[in-house]
Amino acid sequence: MENSTRSDGRAADALRPVSLQPGIAPNASGSVLIRFGHTQVICAATLENNVPRWMREQKVEGGWMTAEYSMLPYSTHDRKPRDISKGRLDGRTVEIQRLIGRSLRAVADLSKLPGMTLCIDCDVLQADGGTRTASITGAYVAAELALRRAIAEGKLKESPLRQAVAAVSVGLLGDTPLLDLCYTEDRDARVDANIVMTGDGRFVEVQASGEESTFSPSEMAALTALAEKGLVELFAAQQAALA
């Protein structure tokens, strides 16, 4: 793909610099600081010996995986008030943490997590676009580290995670498909999408929308192909962090 005029000089099909730093939160069962360019998110996993009340009431066997997501007040250019100061979670927060939980459960066999809940906390330190995709990508690494620790300590027999899961954003800026949008690109894109996939190339979720615009099947196919290219690199980065 030809070079674009992106603000950071990247090619249209290039990820921002990605790094994963494991062990960032020592009190968590597993943790990682993930960076997508200037976007930085701490993902920390904790294994608890309980399940949600609805599982107990309905006598559902196995365990659960869930996530909480928050943007720290100083993560954005203008201070973002904490949700607790408003007395409720905003709709975007609820949507994103549900997406993170769904993404993990899509690659898990919850029967191998008997009577336990794996909680993932995703805290955005700095936001420059792609916080939900960074959170999902980092959440898998934090979860895998926590589950490896539980197996080593004899709390679990085997990992409920069947394979990796990761996510990346794509969009159309004008007619140009771009991979891994930073904030200004996401703001100005006429179409943006978040693609969540498994390590074997299957979709978990595709969130795509036009901003006062529409897009064609061929444009959607081009965006999907671009996401798949980026996800191959993200899966490799996850495995390197776990090695």
How is this structure best described in words?
- The protein starts with 17 loop residues before the first strand and ends with a helix.
- The longest helix is centred in the C-terminal third of the chain and has 26 residues, at 217-242.
- The radius of gyration is 18 Å and the shape is globular.
- It is 33% helix and 28% strand.
- It has helices spanning 53-57, 83-86, 91-106, 131-152, 183-188, 217-242; strands at residues 18-22, 30-36, 39-48, 64-71, 117-126, 165-173, 176-179, 191-198, 203-210.
- The protein is an alpha+beta fold.
- 42% of the residues are buried.
- It has one domain: Ribosomal Protein S5, domain 2 (2-Layer Sandwich), CATH 3.30.230.
Main features:
243 residues; alpha+beta; Ribosomal Protein S5, domain 2; five-stranded mixed β-sheet; four-stranded antiparallel β-sheet; 6 helices; globular
**Sheet bearing the most strands, described?**
5 strands, mixed
- Helix content, binned percent: 25-40%
What's the number of structural domains? 1
Tell me the CATH architecture: 2-Layer Sandwich
Beta-strand percent range: 25-35%
C-alpha geometry? globular
Please report the distance between the alpha carbons of the first and last residues.
31 Å
Average residue-wise pLDDT: 92
Strand line-up across the major sheet: 1-2-3-5-4
Quaternary organisation: single chain
Detail the topology: elements first, then pairings.
Elements: E1 18-22, E2 30-36, E3 39-48, H1 53-57, E4 64-71, H2 83-86, H3 91-106, E5 117-126, H4 131-152, E6 165-173, E7 176-179, H5 183-188, E8 191-198, E9 203-210, H6 217-242
Parallel strand pairs: 4-5
Antiparallel strand pairs: 1-2, 2-3, 3-5, 6-7, 6-8, 8-9
Helix pairs in contact: 3-4, 4-6
